[in-house]
Amino acid sequence: MTAAQDSARALFSALTGYEPDGLWSAPGRVNLIGEHTDYNEGFVLPFAIPHRTVAAVGTRDDGRIRVASTFADDAVEVGLDELVSLFPTRTGSQPAVPEWAAYPLGVAWALQLAGASGHGVDIAIASDVPVGAGLSSSAAIEGATASALNDLWDAGLDRVALARVGRRAENEAVGAPTGIMDQMASMLGEPDEAIFLDCRSLEAQTVPVGAAASGLAILVMDTRVKHAHSTGGYGERRASCEKGAAVMGVSSLRDVSVADLPRAEELMDDVTFRRVRHIVTENQRVLDTVRVLREQGARAIGELLIASHASMRDDFEISVPELDTAVEAALAAGAIGARMTGGGFGGAAIALIEQSAVDAVSAAVEDAFAQAGFGAPHLFTVVPAAGAHRDA
Ligand code: ADP
Ligand code: MG
């Protein structure tokens, strides 16, 4: 039993006085490369991490759904037939239930929209995925809930359909306008593999990362600066991308290539152009990273990671000083590559480093944070791990 499994089970018993039918879990994710490309119908290369969110779920003999989390003081209970009147939530406004509860309740609602139905359920959630750190605790809670209800309601949806359910919950029940990457990574993760995803077709291929076999480690540097997806910069960046695509006369920036950039620069204002340039070059970097991983291995992708960070910092302007400090300190201490990961405005960065250098790079990053007067970062290594499944 992991700590999260124990906590979910204990919370379930305390809440209901009976034992759950089972435990389901889904992981957080790190994005190796391909940031903000998902909602532009482009390419991403995330992998699931060992940190998981666990849902202990039991069936009830009425038609109500109750959700509880170690993260929140109070459980929330509604009728399954009331979900349709609670959601959707208008983008940018607050859901009609506490925000955290809109994730699991939104999943139940989105499953109903996908044709699923069943008896009432009690759901108790616990997690060891850092929340709001850019490691997608949101996809993890969605994936754990969706997997449980898919099984208990006999809905028969496949993993891609469950990823869509999670995304719909996040977009339309929580009101956060995020793309499909996180849910796909959390549903499709495989040990030692990254998920190369075409966000237009939702076609996914696994790509071996092989970091451990090459003597490398992937260090996550959580700055502990919390980001918020449902507000502010994320929505603005999406709007800039839509504007850039409209100016170029295409439905999404997926259809703009590096060769089109000089024309884009002539047609649009400087800010919109830089947003577009990030997406277009980032898509190319994902394709290059997949090729280099397959042909040469992880040791050869460092420059692509470094270029991706620079593009997010300078063109897309979604980095913060803590993320830049983490990346610079890791590189100065010998990292092969490093970049912020996730939506930005806080959260985490990753560094690809020699296994033998984990302690030295960690110490260098901690020193740099102390020197800059930042709060201590949370540092840990990850390996690509399995996607959502039933645990017990
Ligand atoms: P990230 O996905 O990077 O962690 P998000 O803002 O997308 O950050 O999602 C974090 C939100 O998801 C939390 O504020 C909370 O509302 C919800 N959430 C995530 N994990 C849990 C959990 N274990 N219990 C309850 N709510 C959770
Ligand atoms: Mg999230």
From TrEMBL:
Binding site for Mg(2+): 138, 170
The protein's enzyme class: transferase
Binding site for ATP: 69, 132-138
Residue span(s) of domain GHMP kinase C-terminal: 293-370
Active-site positions on this chain: 182 (proton acceptor)
Residues with site note (Transition state stabilizer): 29
Annotated compartments: Cytoplasm
Database matches in SUPFAM superfamilies: GHMP Kinase, C-terminal domain, Ribosomal protein S5 domain 2-like
Keywords: ATP-binding, Carbohydrate metabolism, Cytoplasm, Galactose metabolism, Kinase, Magnesium, Metal-binding, Nucleotide-binding, Transferase
Residue ranges constituting the Galactokinase N-terminal domain according to the UniProt record: 11-58
GO biological processes: galactose metabolic process
Residues forming coiled coils: none
Domain GHMP kinase N-terminal residue range list: 103-189
Annotated substrate binding sites: 35-38, 234
EC number, as in UniProt: 2.7.1.6
Catalytic activity annotation: alpha-D-galactose + ATP = alpha-D-galactose 1-phosphate + ADP + H(+)
Annotated pathway: Carbohydrate metabolism; galactose metabolism
A GO CC annotation given for this chain: cytosol
Family classification: Belongs to the GHMP kinase family. GalK subfamily.
Function: Catalyzes the transfer of the gamma-phosphate of ATP to D-galactose to form alpha-D-galactose-1-phosphate (Gal-1-P).
Protein name in UniProt: Galactokinase
Source organism of this protein record: Microbacterium saperdae
GN (gene name): galK
